[in-house]
């Protein structure tokens, strides 16, 4: 069967610069796909493009598709897209403040979703909003529904943000580094909560993260991005046990134990290429310990196992112990 969400050959340009260059990934209902990579690798831009949030004049999606149950989100009219946001596909942002209105109570904001999308009465919508706050484990939800965003701690506000995203029971949730602003203990709680909700509701979760601990904990699949491309993709356990791309191997290199939470990805010597001036050949070459003559050519993504892709000429050497 076709995956619930399938992104294919996505290209995004900001001005003359191509920041997402042919990205593809897939996720099924009830599954979590972790999207890994350094800042600037195009993880967030890909997510925003899928959500229909990359728009001229700032940026443009120039190619590719993002099919949700076969419907290409990228070709929908803006009005239709707006209808789908929340009901079918929703996003959790790095800081919930960007998704919340500071002058309205959080209960009101969640209730508004039920009023706008399901036509519920004011009273019924308010009741459902409290249920949502309960679901995301806000203590004393009925009372807290009347509070404003600034009255919540960072962690509680992020729960509210998750509540906003899941209120209408979307099929896909994209969470863009939803715990970056939080301390390690709260991070773990939020990730666990997202994972639980995702399993209970059969939602597909695309989780953009820097945190390898998250991958070990809740991801079914992993897509590793570098310089605007997916360089490796596959089942999380396999990628973790036997990376097939030097970049993935390097990212995992400094993680001594997968059970360690809150670990950042390894810092790899060198810098990603300037997206404004792509050099020919593999983009990881200047930082790669495996580079050989073939690497002057862009490596194609090749399937090296079921659902397992790598874009590296030397992948066999990388997987050889
Ligand atoms: Fe390194 Fe070559 Fe593989 Fe690129 S294609 S990651 S330069 S070995
Ligand atoms: Mg980002």
Strand content of the residues, in percent? Answer: 15-25%
Q: What is the gyration radius calculated from CA atoms?
A: 20 Å
- CATH architectural group of the domain at 29-36 and 170-319: 3-Layer(aba) Sandwich
Largest sheet report: 8 strands, mixed
Tell me how many strands there are: 12
Q: What do the pLDDT scores average to?
A: 89
Q: Any idea of the CATH class of the domain at 29-36 and 170-319?
A: Alpha Beta
Helical content stands at: 25-40%
Helical segment tally?
A: 11
Ranges where pLDDT stays below 50 over 5 or more residues in a row are 256-263
If you consult CATH, what is the topology of the domain at 29-36 and 170-319?
Answer: Rossmann fold
């Amino acid at each position: 069967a076709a995956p619930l969400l399938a992104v294919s050959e996505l290209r995004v340009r900001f001005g003359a610069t191509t920041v997402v260059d042919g990205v593809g990934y897939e996720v099924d209902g009830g599954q979590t796909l972790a999207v890994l990579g350094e800042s600037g690798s195009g993880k967030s831009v890909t997510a925003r493009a899928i959500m229909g949030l990359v728009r001229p004049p700032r940026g443009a999606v120039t190619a590719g598709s993002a099919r949700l149950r076969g419907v290409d989100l990228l070709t929908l009219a803006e009005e239709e897209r707006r209808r789908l946001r929340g009901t079918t596909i929703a996003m959790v942002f790095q800081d919930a403040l960007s998704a919340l209105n500071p002058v309205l109570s959080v209960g009101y904001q969640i209730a508004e979703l039920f009023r706008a999308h399901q036509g519920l009465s004011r009273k019924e919508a308010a009741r459902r909003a409290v249920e949502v706050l309960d679901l995301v484990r806000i203590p004393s939800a009925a009372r807290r529904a009347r509070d404003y965003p600034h009255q919540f701690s960072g962690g509680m506000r992020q729960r509210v943000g998750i509540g906003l995203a899941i209120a209408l029971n979307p099929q896909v949730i994209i969470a863009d580094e939803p715990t970056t602003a939080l301390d390690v203990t709260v991070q773990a709680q939020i990730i666990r909560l997202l994972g639980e909700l995702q399993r209970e509701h059969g939602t597909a979760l695309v989780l953009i993260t820097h945190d390898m601990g998250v991958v070990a904990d809740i991801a079914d699949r992993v897509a590793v991005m570098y310089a605007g491309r997916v360089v490796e993709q596959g089942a999380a356990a396999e990628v973790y046990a036997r990376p097939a791309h030097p970049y993935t191997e390097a990212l995992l290199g400094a993680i001594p134990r997968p059970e360690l939470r809150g670990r950042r990805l390894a810092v790899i010597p060198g810098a990603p290429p300037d997206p404004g001036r792509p050099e020919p050949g593999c983009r990881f070459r200047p930082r790669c310990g495996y580079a050989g003559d073939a690497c002057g050519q862009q490596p194609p993504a090749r399937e090296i196992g079921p659902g397992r892709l790598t874009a590296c000429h030397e992948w066999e050497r990388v997987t050889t112990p």
